[in-house]
Amino acid sequence: HDCGLYLLISLLQALNGFVLVVTSEGLIFYSSHTIQDYLGFHQVDVIHQSVFELIHTEDQPEFRRNLHWALDPPLTPEGPSPAAGKSQDSAAVVCKPDQLPPENSSFLERSFVCRFRCLLDNSSGFLALNLQGRLKFLHGQNKRSEDGSVLPPQLALFAISTPLQPPSILQIRTKNMIFRTKHKLDFTPLACDAKGKIVLGYSEAELRMCGTGYQFVHAADTLYCAENHVRMMKTGESGLTVFRLLTKDNRWKWVQANARLIYKNGKPEYIVATQRPLVDEEGGEHLRKRPMHLPFTFTTGEALLYQSTHPLPGFPDLFQSKGKPSKFQKPSCSHGGHSQENGIDPQSLLGTVMRQDKAMH
């Protein structure tokens, strides 16, 4: 059994794509873990979710059509409602096995193209995938009809999803090093997966010890990252962010990241960031394209999130902490000092830059 599992994992890694199983209602029953290498979503994030939340609006009718055994699904209202993410029963037709063509019939084979949301694609936010497979009965669901009787197994789409455009050598080199980090709402690091520890060189204890996550961000990228942090706090997702992280051996590593809020009981609880390492040439190209402007002003109040306590000429005292402890304050990193120096909060953006400078020298 272990040998078979190892072989399956090896085959998935070698496959240029990922496995996807979608029920007739449009729910993702299974996805291989390699979906993260192509779309940036973790396996556990998509299973039991509506596949239509990942598909481009214009391509949703085509996907829905291919879920139906006769390529003729019942009409549904234009634009699925938010509630449709959990159940698409109105779009699914319950069929008895004897009403369907044989499972090995070529009539149930599927090959079509759809654009999927991609957290790793910086051009359009979508990746065109070719889905090739067939409709097969999904057993063991034990679903019941309104009268309480057990429904027979229904057809589901079993497909291999591969990018239309073959990956470049650069993408092949970096896709297997995608890593995820977990943060508090102020971006304080909480956890890092195994690949992240390899890329950055830190242990989880070392990441947590420094308090603010901005301690690891290059000074020239700090305000750019802060702008996307504010956007994420407002919208739930940062959008693609390319910046430099300080590794344990004091080198700067370019990464392309997408951070999003994770909610519990309707309230944001923590942040998960999916990050892909880039080579210096890629990072430099992104830097040249970056708009050079101050992302926000202190007069909006957004800068209070970062607790800047350094007196700034022309700004009133109400934007300073006035000596009151901040709910975002953390113990200082061991190499950065343990108290405010020259009136600068070590947890502020300015403070992290100064501590970073000490670490580098």
Automatic annotation (TrEMBL):
SMART domains: PAC (SM00086), PAS (SM00091)
A biological-process GO annotation: xenobiotic metabolic process
Entry-linked InterPro entries: AHR/AHRR, PAC, PAS, PAS-like_dom_sf, PAS_fold, PAS_fold_3
Positions of region (Disordered): 318-361
Pfam families: PAS, PAS_3
Residue span(s) of domain PAS: 8-74
Cellular component terms (Gene Ontology): aryl hydrocarbon receptor complex; nucleus
Main location class: nucleus
Biased composition (Polar residues): 329-342
CDD domains linked: PAS
Keyword Kinase: no
Keywords: Activator, DNA-binding, Nucleus, Transcription, Transcription regulation
SUPFAM superfamilies to which the protein is assigned, alphabetical: PYP-like sensor domain (PAS domain)
PROSITE patterns, A to Z: PAS
The keyword Phosphoprotein belongs to this UniProt entry's keyword annotation: no
Protein name as annotated: AHR protein
Protein species of origin: Cisticola juncidis
Gene name per UniProt: Ahr_2
